[in-house]
Amino acid sequence: MQPKQVRIVEVGPRDGLQNEVAVSLQAKVNLVDQLSQAGLHYIETGAFVSPKWVPQMAESAAVFDQIKRSTGITYAALTPNLKGYEAAMVAKADEVAIFGAASEAFTQKNINCSIAESLERFAPVVQQAKADGIRVRGYVSCVVGCPYQGDVAPSEVARVAKALLDMGCYEISLGDTIGVGTANSVNAMLDAVMAVIPTEQLAVHFHDTYGQALTNIYVALQRGIAVVDSAVAGLGGCPYAAGASGNVATEDVVYLLNGLGIQHGVDLNALAKTGWQICAELGKPVSSKVGLALQANCLKTNP
Questions:
Q1: Contact at 8 Å (CB) between 18 and 57?
Q2: Exposure string (b/e) for 109-147, b if CB count within 10 Å is 16 or more?
Q3: Which of 8, 17, 81, 129 is most buried, by CB atoms within 10 Å?
Q4: How many C-beta atoms surround the C-beta of residue 70 within 10 A?
Q5: Catalytic residues
Q6: Is residue 166 a contact partner of residue 130, using CB atoms and an 8 Å limit?
Q7: DSSP code of 19?
Q8: Where does the Pyruvate carboxyltransferase domain lie (predicted)?
Q9: What is the Cα–Cα distance from 161 to 165, expressed in whole angstroms?
């Protein structure tokens, strides 16, 4: 059953910017502040990872320090290990996230270990977060396809998602990392996952490589999933998946939700302007079709 309200998890400042050219610290701070002003209540603000591997996230501590925090907004951080978690706590992140993958090939290629070993690495993070009263969100990458092994079995997605849930993650975000999902493959994956995880603890995270992200989100909505990850202006991609385009654009998701009569609390015009500004900083066009349409209309009325 379609939900009456959806929580949008804005991943642009982290998952988006980490796969774009570097922008200034001030641009990152402005982006987070503008997203909060546009009505986003959950913003993935940064990542505490090795600057050697993800230099775009090297200033995450400074971003957390300089943003104008608003009551009722969750400012979250990605933390792959205990060192990253400790840095996130110093920066006063409200929540943290860990990330696994449903593909053995993807896991081996990217972090040189098995899925089981990768999950073991997260256990200390979750244990410490529990002790500190900090909520942990879990990501599962490659839930439909993998750039190295091809199709991913829905049973594997369910197994990894359940392992993260059992470990202590309050919510599991299912990520189509290379954007190959279709309505049928997503439904098959959700059949397996929803058999072992309650609907209210699931989120979806689609990339739009083949233009199917909104269709796949619609599929998830019709199955009762009420949390959607997206990135303003369609920022990002996957550095490990050649040709994978950005996350589904938050503007496009908001327009879809508006059309379905689903509440979300986001000001579409303010959001679109935020997308225009960060793309100007990046020197790239807006990837959001809704953002582009609103920009064209704005230029028409304000030549």
A1: yes
A2: ebeeeebeebbeebeebbebbeeeebbbbbbbbbbbbbb
A3: 17
A4: 12
A5: 238
A6: no
A7: G
A8: 6-272
A9: 6
Helix (H, G, I), strand (E, B) or coil at 98: strand
Neighbours of 18 (CB within 10 A): 23
pTM of the model: 0.95
**Tens of pLDDT along 242-290?**
655 689 999 999 999 999 999 999 999 999 999 999 999 999 988 899 9
Q: For 7-301, CATH number?
A: 3.20.20.70
Q: Both tokens of residue 19?
A: 């796969």
Cross-strand bridge partners of residue 174: 140, 204
- Helix or strand (DSSP H, E) at 18: none
C-alpha closest to that of 275 among 291, 297, 264, 290 = 291
For 197-229, what is each residue's pLDDT tens digit?
999 999 999 999 999 999 999 999 999 999 999
pLDDT at residue 92, rounded to an integer: 98
Polymer length of the chain: 303
What is each CA distance from 165 to 149, 195, 196, in whole angstroms? 25, 13, 10
Q: Which two tokens stand for residue 37?
A: 């002003």
Whether 229 contacts 247, CB under 8 Å: yes
Q: Which residue has the tokens 């189509």?
A: 176
- Residue 53 token pair: 């591997």
pLDDT at 141 over 90: yes
Residue 228 to residue 267: CA distance in whole angstroms: 16
Residue 83: partners with Cβ closer than 8 Å, 6 or more residues away: 48
Give the distance from CA 73 to its chain's centroid.
16
How high is the mean pLDDT of the chain?
Answer: 94
SS3 291: helix
217 exposure class (CB count in 10 Å sphere: 0-12, 13-18, 19+): buried
Q: For residues 276 and 267, give the distance between their C-alpha atoms in angstroms, rounded to a whole number.
A: 15
